Amino acid sequence: MLEWKYQNYVEQLETGLSYYLPETPDTPEILREAMEYSLLAGGKRVRPVLALATADLLLLHGSQKREVMAYAVALEMIHTYSLIHDDLPAMDNDVLRRGKPTNHVVFGEATAILAGDALLTRAFEIFGGYMDGTYRTSCSLLNIAKAFGKLAQYAGCSGMIGGQILDIEAEGEQLTLEELQTLQAKKTGCLLEAPVVGIGLICGAKNEELAILQSYAQAVGKAFQIKDDILDVESTTQELGKTVGKDQKYAKATYVTLLGMDEAKAQLKKAESAAEQACDQLTAMGYDTEFFRFLSGKMAGRSY
Ligand code: GRG
């Protein structure tokens, strides 16, 4: 039932992604093709699912669902751009993503860079569309602006991009656990916090609610990253749809390389418990947390 709900969110999102991709003849065909190639290539869609689920948890009125979808789409566009750029020869130099050849392998490096740039820019063009009336809304414009402003922070220099540069600088270095946690919280955690906090802002959640939503998202982000590190060792390239074994090959600092597999698994359990605790607090406030609980369990137990 809850797995069905997850798939239902994914289906809603796929419709939203196609809707917000640029259709105008002003967008050169090859650029649109390269954007679409990676954006519509599947993936778990965990960030937008978190966004749609947060809106449902906060019992958002139906009329505000369009803004929620716009935010979820913008977030997935930013996530997809980061994957395209991360796979480039200048970064991770990978040839497989979401079970398909990477964007630069198919379209060439220059087009892949531009497709990533265009997805990032498009995310904020959607926001502009709500501000200038291109897209009609009954939601508070201030709340939408707060959410997209926060999204820029999560994706930018103090968030994901900041984490990526720390990651590049850390190659071949021995990190402490604290340094690793800071790096991962920025690189991976921020874009997993963005759906929950951003939708909280769109819905006008109170500060107290936002703080609990944030602690839930941080715990999910941590569990997600630890599991990512475990899967890099225990899974296969075929199952993950991306190259495995790279952390060890490139001597990357990860929860597994730093703590060992057993302790990494113990830390994963701890992160899962932290997510449960945040859910308990939300339940006590009267919110239905069944899907949130399912989601954190799914992220920690996933096999791809
Ligand atoms: C290049 C600006 C820039 C940032 C790159 C996202 C990222 C930052 C790097 C990807 C490398 C990596 C393995 C990160 C850790 C976890 C992560 C973000 C995995 C990919 O996300 P998933 O598993 O991918 O949600 P799907 O394909 O399911 O959407």
Describe the strand arrangement of the main beta sheet, using strand numbers: 1-2
Query: Approximately what portion of the residues adopt beta-strand conformation?
Result: under 5%
Bound small molecules, by name, code or SMILES, are:
geranylgeranyl diphosphate
Uncertain runs: none
Look at the helices and sheets and give the structural class. Answer: mainly alpha
Please describe the biggest sheet, giving its number of strands, its sense, and whether it closes into a barrel. Answer: 2 strands, antiparallel
Question: What series of H and E elements makes up the topology?
Answer: HHHHEEHHHHHHHHHHH
Distance between the termini: 20 Å
Number of strands: 2
Helix run count = 15
Q: Which term fits the overall shape? A: globular
Question: From the alpha-carbon coordinates, what is the Rg to the nearest angstrom?
Answer: 19 Å
Mean pLDDT: 94
Q: Helix proportion of residues, in percent?
A: over 70%
